[in-house]
């Protein structure tokens, strides 16, 4: 998906510090201070986790840390709600299957 | 154990309002929020708010957020972020989880709960697919994170949230492929619907989402018409190629902490669902625990702010910082400010429900269970399925007469529903716009006093005022309108003029694109068109190339 | 229901966290479980990480549709502390905190 470079009300995007994160082994760039979910969606990734019972994809849904659909494994820790967790340099992010890794 | 006089839970408009007023009168206030930034949902509200001067009407939500934070800071409100209230126990003890690391206990003499609302949902096959998101989530993504949730979006729900978020998605550069509404009419303000319709978004009233399909995320959505019993009509299915489906089907009070604290809850459908009973001072059935904002009944940000302020004042009074005469005066003042926002066809049900809450609270004190009968409905609301025609608009007091239009530039106010809003009145230096005694009354145009200066155009949060200049040239009329999409057109551009429904009417020439400080980021575009289109053209086609 | 049945198909999930389908909720209601609390115990709907924040009102609708009950009579499930998930190691911190939690 696209980042919003210019906006009629919010103006041009401010200069932000770029950082690198690793998503399922692939290095992608993100902006310091943004949520993991925003960085992933901006990079075209939408399926964040797969469910335990039906093995179906889930992603960003409530956006306020309530529904837990966006949970991923971050730096080895599962169940991190990516919609309310901000990216950090070198973060390692992996798709969550059920309660943990595939 | 740390002790505070007042603990306010939730730093949205209600919580900020409560913290500001309580500390203004001298109470020591701690304001906590579970997020890492204060403001609740205010900072993603990039549109101009309705209301009156006291409610900062005409100001964009995020600016109101900045003002409130500034005020809270200057009054010495202590704000603790990433602080979650785990529970409120007997003996006024509150347990807090700070930064997910540490549990702290706190003793608070008074607690104000301003925990806001939660988005309701609608379930259909495929609604768990990535790409189906809440409207609030979409708004956070575009207006805070500046990332589009998708490029082709279907909105579900034509209430104000659905309409406003659709508009903001267009502004951010996404395509909104349609707004689906189960009711047989547009449920939000018509002026909000008019904005997105001028932008070319189709509205499907009496429709539902039957299914959303996709492998790893949304690839298409199937919508269908509904019959009178709300069942999908076979054969009316329509498949839309969308990558995102946005749910805006209402909010319910986030009453979990109130419930945990022991506040008595009851169901008030017109205010979103189960909520804590409270009195006219906003104190719940649990002594010392006050409630405000969407928790005390889902409304909108301006009422949440005023209700928060009233709760803060009540708390300060109960702690002895305000004497009873002064308190009664303030309570009356804020009560009437709140009542103003609950007038008119959109507000009266909420006003009645609020009264019921208070009467149920009083009965609870004496052990009764009776609910007041619903009062007389005073709704004169005509429900629209689409934007009305010119001839319908002409019936309203803001539309200038044909004679006046032929005389020269004049404002044309297409505001036809009684909503609580009046910035246009103050915007006119010639006092040509009048709203009678009530904030919800329709603006009327004193057409002989209108000089056609155009200052009212950008002041209208509903973008419902246009400028018509019939005598622009011998064969052309000029029309001015607010415009908030990028890229802006340039003078000399030949573009398509569109009518109120976003349909192209004819080629027009852009004459002027004005951006003034007073317009607060709303551009005013003037185009020249054939005179016959003066009652039809109300905008220009949005350019859909990359911004 | 088999784990690999249909990718999306007609399956309509009600409780997103525990992946409980509409049919399972309806079945429970037909069996006589007609409160949000009873349905939670029978099906696990609302027992997941979000604690019924999303599905509670959907289940309320289904109960209202299938029984004589009015919506205001279909109460949300009792809210229990802690209101947010807390790691056990943090809950187990030494000191007075533990005593206070035992007050519930």
Automatic annotation (TrEMBL), chain A:
<dbReference type="InterPro" id="IPR042204">
    <property type="entry name" value="2Fe-2S-bd_N"/>
</dbReference>
<keyword id="KW-0560">Oxidoreductase</keyword>
<dbReference type="GO" id="GO:0016491">
    <property type="term" value="F:oxidoreductase activity"/>
</dbReference>
<protein>
    <recommendedName>
        <fullName>Dehydrogenase</fullName>
    </recommendedName>
</protein>
<dbReference type="InterPro" id="IPR036010">
    <property type="entry name" value="2Fe-2S_ferredoxin-like_sf"/>
</dbReference>
<dbReference type="InterPro" id="IPR001041">
    <property type="entry name" value="2Fe-2S_ferredoxin-type"/>
</dbReference>
<dbReference type="GO" id="GO:0051536">
    <property type="term" value="F:iron-sulfur cluster binding"/>
</dbReference>
<dbReference type="Pfam" id="PF13510">
    <property type="entry name" value="Fer2_4"/>
</dbReference>
TrEMBL record, chain B:
<feature type="domain" description="4Fe-4S ferredoxin-type">
    <location>
        <begin position="441"/>
        <end position="470"/>
    </location>
</feature>
<dbReference type="GO" id="GO:0016491">
    <property type="term" value="F:oxidoreductase activity"/>
</dbReference>
<dbReference type="InterPro" id="IPR023753">
    <property type="entry name" value="FAD/NAD-binding_dom"/>
</dbReference>
<keyword id="KW-0411">Iron-sulfur</keyword>
<dbReference type="Pfam" id="PF25160">
    <property type="entry name" value="LdpA_Fe-S-bd"/>
</dbReference>
<dbReference type="InterPro" id="IPR057431">
    <property type="entry name" value="LdpA_Fe-S-bd"/>
</dbReference>
<dbReference type="Pfam" id="PF07992">
    <property type="entry name" value="Pyr_redox_2"/>
</dbReference>
<dbReference type="GO" id="GO:0046872">
    <property type="term" value="F:metal ion binding"/>
</dbReference>
<dbReference type="GO" id="GO:0051536">
    <property type="term" value="F:iron-sulfur cluster binding"/>
</dbReference>
<keyword id="KW-0479">Metal-binding</keyword>
<keyword id="KW-0560">Oxidoreductase</keyword>
<dbReference type="InterPro" id="IPR036188">
    <property type="entry name" value="FAD/NAD-bd_sf"/>
</dbReference>
<protein>
    <submittedName>
        <fullName>FAD-dependent pyridine nucleotide-disulfide oxidoreductase</fullName>
    </submittedName>
</protein>
<dbReference type="InterPro" id="IPR017900">
    <property type="entry name" value="4Fe4S_Fe_S_CS"/>
</dbReference>
<dbReference type="InterPro" id="IPR017896">
    <property type="entry name" value="4Fe4S_Fe-S-bd"/>
</dbReference>
From TrEMBL, chain C:
<protein>
    <recommendedName>
        <fullName>BFD-like [2Fe-2S]-binding domain-containing protein</fullName>
    </recommendedName>
</protein>
<dbReference type="InterPro" id="IPR052745">
    <property type="entry name" value="G3P_Oxidase/Oxidoreductase"/>
</dbReference>
<dbReference type="Pfam" id="PF04324">
    <property type="entry name" value="Fer2_BFD"/>
</dbReference>
<feature type="domain" description="BFD-like [2Fe-2S]-binding">
    <location>
        <begin position="13"/>
        <end position="65"/>
    </location>
</feature>
<dbReference type="InterPro" id="IPR007419">
    <property type="entry name" value="BFD-like_2Fe2S-bd_dom"/>
</dbReference>
<dbReference type="InterPro" id="IPR041854">
    <property type="entry name" value="BFD-like_2Fe2S-bd_dom_sf"/>
</dbReference>
